[in-house]
Amino acid sequence: MDLIQTFQTRNPIIGVVHLLPLPTSARWGGSLKAVIERAEQEATALAAGGVDGIIVENFFDAPFTKGQVNPAVVSAMTLIVDRIMNLVVVPVGINLLRNDATSAIAVAACVGAQFIRVNVLTGIMATDQGLIEGQAHELLRFRRELGSEVAILADVLVKHARPLGTPNLTTAVQDTIERGLADGVILSGWATGSPPSLEDLELAKAAAKETPVFIGSGANWDNIGQLMQAADGAIVASSLKRNGQINEPIDPIRVAQFVEALREATQFKPGPNSTLTPDSAKSRIF
């Protein structure tokens, strides 16, 4: 995945639009208009704050199914993403929780979204929805049948889950890329709002080689400078919301603060093919 081609930067910030409950979900409020209005407000706030991409999630549909979501959810997601894409110029992606990658890539292909997030692309994870098996074979074949170039960003040892057997981060990253054919990998902490460790990011990046590695949770303006030492980009939600609370709407001031913090952290970060010599490092101090 060429980050510069997709996001116009090699260190993209992807802001998250958490949709209010969609039709047929447990907390569906009965008004799709309200869901659309909130989504448009949040997407506009993210874009105005300077993010490089936006991903739309049915976050408040919990409790989630582990398989295909209801057709009403697919219909609503299609409508909402299309509306958002007419509002913003940054790339837009889709995550249909808990793991309906087939529907996500179908929506993306139809509306022209650029990427999807897949929680479990390869392997088997024990989750609060039960055992979820990766379906890379079906997903990649379906993408080919659609004639689509939608990028697949795949979680490795996804949050709110535990792998069957002994986890090995290096092997999991390699399998996700080499056997699952992910275009990028995502590393999160143990839960929403929890960051991955720098050590794990370094292991993931070493295993991923040229494939982009994204921080998938817990990034904020206090830790982003350290975490970006070993990551290519960040997917951000909680820290961009009012008072940092997951149930609150996006705060454009917090978005701008985070964008500034990441830009400062990556201003002198060497590119993938650059070499930092003692002389060049010394010159960058001034």
The residue-averaged pLDDT reads: 91
Count of helical regions: 10
Radius of gyration: 18 Å
Distance between the termini: 33 Å
Q: Main β-sheet, in a few words?
A: 8 strands, parallel, barrel
Question: What share of residues is helical?
Answer: 25-40%
**Which series of helices and strands comes N to C?**
HEHEHEHEEEHEEHEHEHEHH
Strand arrangement within the widest β-sheet reads 1-2-3-4-7-9-10-11
The SS-based structural class is alpha/beta
Give the total of beta strands: 11
Beta percentage is 15-25%
pLDDT < 50 runs, ≥5 residues: 273-286
Shape: globular
Would you give an account of this structure?
With 286 residues, the protein is α/β, with parallel strands linked by helices. Helices cover 38% and strands 16% of the residues. It is built from ten helices and eleven strands. Strands 1-2-3-4-7-9-10-11 form an eight-stranded parallel β-barrel, surrounded by six helices. The longest helix is centred in the N-terminal third of the chain and has 18 residues, at 32-49. It is globular, with a radius of gyration of 18 Å.
Draw up the topology in text:
Layout: H1 3-7, E1 13-18, H2 32-49, E2 53-57, H3 71-85, E3 92-95, H4 101-111, E4 115-118, E5 124-127, E6 130-133, H5 136-146, E7 151-155, E8 161-163, H6 169-179, E9 184-187, H7 198-208, E10 213-215, H8 224-227, E11 233-236, H9 252-266, H10 278-285
Parallel strand pairs: 1-2, 1-11, 2-3, 3-4, 4-7, 7-9, 9-10, 10-11
Antiparallel strand pairs: 5-6, 5-8
